[in-house]
Amino acid sequence: MKRFAYVLVFLLGNGMLIAQDCNQVLTGQVIDFHDGLPLEDARISFNNLVFTTDNEGRFRIENLCPTAYAFTVTHQDCITQVKTIDVSKTSEIDFYLEHHYTDLDQVDISTSNGKNVTNSLSEDKLSSQDIENYSSLSLGDALKEVSGVTSLSTGNTIVKPVIQGLHSSRIIIMNNGVRQEDQEWGEEHAPNVDINAFNQIKIIKGAGALQYGGNAIGGVVVAENKLTTLRDTIFGSAGFAASSNGRGTASNATVNIGLSDGWSARAQGTLKYFGDSEAPDYILSNTGHREQSFSFGTGYSNFQFGVEGYYSFYNATQGILRASHIGNVGDLVRAIKSDRPLIEEDFTYVINEPKQKTQHHLAKLKAYNRFRNLGKLELQYALQVNQRKEFDIRRGEDRDKASLDLELITHALESSFLFDANENFKKTAGVQLTYQTNTPNPETGVRRLIPDYEKYTAGLYAISEISLYDNLKADLGIRYDYIHLDAKKFYKKDFWEARGYDQEFPNLIIRDEGNQWLTNPIYDYHSIAASAGVKYTYADNNKLLFNASYAMRAPNPTELFSDGLHHSAAIIELGRLDLDQEKALKFSLTSEHKNLFDFLSVKIAPYFSKIEDYKLLEPTGLELTIRGAFPVWEYRQTDALLYGVDVDLSASLTNNWSVASAFSYIRGQDEILNEDLPQMPAPVFRSTLTYAVSQLELSLINTTALKQSHFPNNNFEVEFTENQELTTEVVDISSPPPGYTLFDLMANYTLTLKNPQDFRVGLSVTNIFNTSYRDYLNRQRYYAAALGRNISIHLNLKF
């Protein structure tokens, strides 16, 4: 009976169509939504009929019945559009397709390529496998895969990237389209981000990416968490790692969903649990690590309109090497001279004081809309809440109370417009507004290292990309930032006078508090940044890049206001109220040869940078407090000269064997004192020999760091009583440790369960020979050696 009804409906429907007067005509044009140009050879199909547009993008369809038709419109490199039209009411229609859709940074998450942020700066990308290999470690550890990128660390878990000798506030980290704000001013404050939250990570060396900020003198790390562009799909991955050093585990999982109507979602989570790390000859007591993170994003997108919401949460507890907190001056001298830490305890998962606890919340809402023959408008609001607690070794009722307790809240609103109707001359203009408050908890019972403050910033920028010829492109950009900083800070009167602030800043005092002044420092900074460069492509996709940039960076709160014991760093840190903005002029050149002699790829990137009023932190002496003896480090300014080169080589030796090598060299000089700058990375070689066959890949990695032979002498003398006699000793806080050579082994075997390459088993052995070494850029090298051998098993399942 049901089948009979279907046949009857079909016959009646056709009969009605036959009875109609089918002489309707539909005309129109298929147009590129992007630039308004007609699209030739576009196809309009319906009811198994196909019509093609002429060289002006026009079409004419005759003999249509007065009813509704579903027309499918397609063109090469365009997203197919289906549109229902009632031809009894409409006789002329224009279809708009996005012919350049593939050029608009719509990349699938399965790749890590994407479009370069600039034309003229060296950009490097971490592959998805790189991210998987470092899933149990930090972002700073992973970025060391890139030539010219090293790390400044405090122990083994607090790691921050150093790009061509610059770090901290000179590097911007973009967390899924939002500038990361997490009290990362201090040298021992690591970025509060989980590497597993991202599917793309780019490193831009230099200050030319002005859309992210004008003070990125060192560069930008762009970590993105892109939603899938696939439709009607659900896929993801789950990873697990177990490590011998730290005797801990790390697990993470990601799920991606794409729906046919344009909606998509992504959820990700990570858990890490590690106990004390181990040097080759002893336990590094109190160096455990805990981390929990979660992120979720969802959005709707098509080529004309899109909206996205995102939230991420990061929570970590990190132990600080117990031996780095010294009881008296004699112990400090003995600790620096000793081959072993003064405090050694049995392995434990317990994290005692000293330690850090950090939490970071990020929420954003973003929308975009494309306008015909014009471009793309984007609007974004983001909220970040960051809480940092640092716990010192305290006694009595305060033993469980944080010594430093800060809450940083940042609101950011930004908008940009991309004018891309002219493919040969793209322009972007944008505005960024930020309001930030920092609130120290007064209940700590300890003098506030960073004061209460409010900060307002407003930025305007314009950048352009110009195609001069098919093989020659240029980019230009300029940016202006206004920064207003309003702080409330207590100063001891004797310190205020000793610094000469009573003569230089008498108007800052707003109240007398006994032995202290309550002051109200207010700063207004006007910063300019500019960038210009070219990219020349020649002979089999070889490239030559040149960039010149100028950038200004205002002092951060640590540099201005630090005044007391920085507990996690185990130093007394002193800022200066009279610091000026840094002014950096940088020139960089990059030469890339893809197939030299048909088997070799070479990239050479020299650079030169001159920075006026460069701010640096250096040791100046020792102070004995009720909590122990601590080195005193103070900020000062000078004029700096930095120059160096990054070199990358890779070669396919045979079908199965390949080799890759990288070398980085940088020299930093203090032009005023005519001496070397401190904390400049030593020359580093990194080479990888890889054997790949079928489902197996084996890699032997060598890292060789030379001894840093260029450093300033900041040693100082101390007096202390030993064996009832007054002794004078030189505290050697300047001399770099010897160079070192490490070997690592990585093995990956890929299995096919349901789909090709959907299960990977990995084994890695770092520091194979259990070499004892100390790294010049590790702040705890004075007290203990770096990590010994670590054996890790990695499992990764794709579904």
Description:
The protein is mostly beta strands and 799 residues long. It has a 22-stranded antiparallel β-barrel. Strands 8-13-14-11-12 form a 5-stranded mixed sheet. Strands 3-2-5-6 form a 4-stranded antiparallel sheet, with no helix packed on it. Strand 20 and strand 21 (305-319) form a beta hairpin. The longest helix is centred in the first third of the chain and has 18 residues, at 2-19. Mean pLDDT is 88; it is low at 1-19 and 101-113.
Helix content: under 10%
Rounded average pLDDT: 88
Task: Report the major sheet.
Answer: 22 strands, antiparallel, barrel
Q: Oligomerization state of this entry? A: single chain
Low-confidence stretches: 1-19, 101-113
Secondary structural class = mainly beta
Anisotropy-based shape: globular
Number of helices: 7
User: What amount of the residues lies in strands?
Assistant: over 45%
Number of strand segments: 45
Radius of gyration: 30 Å
C-alpha end-to-end distance: 44 Å
Keyphrases for this structure?
single chain; 7% helix; 799 residues; 22-stranded antiparallel barrel; mainly beta; 5-stranded mixed β-sheet
Write the layout of secondary structure elements.
Elements (H helix, E strand, L loop, with lengths): L1 H18 L4 E9 L10 E4 L2 E4 L5 E7 L3 E7 L6 E6 L5 E6 L25 E4 L1 H6 L5 H5 L5 E6 L3 E6 L7 E5 L2 E2 L20 E6 L13 E6 L8 E11 L4 E11 L4 E12 L2 E2 L4 E2 L4 E13 L3 E15 L9 H9 L17 E17 L3 E17 L12 E16 L5 E16 L11 E18 L2 E21 H6 L2 H4 L4 E5 L2 E4 L2 E17 L3 E12 L3 H5 L1 E4 L4 E4 L7 E15 L3 E26 L2 E25 L4 E14 L4 E2 L7 E10 L2 E10 L10 E7 L2 E7 L8 E12 L7 E8 L23 E9 L1
Parallel strand pairs: 1-7, 11-14, 33-36
Antiparallel strand pairs: 1-4, 2-3, 2-5, 5-6, 8-13, 9-10, 11-12, 13-14, 15-16, 15-45, 16-17, 17-20, 18-19, 20-21, 21-22, 22-23, 23-24, 24-25, 25-26, 26-27, 27-29, 27-30, 28-29, 30-31, 31-34, 32-33, 34-35, 35-36, 36-37, 37-38, 37-39, 39-40, 40-43, 41-42, 43-44, 44-45
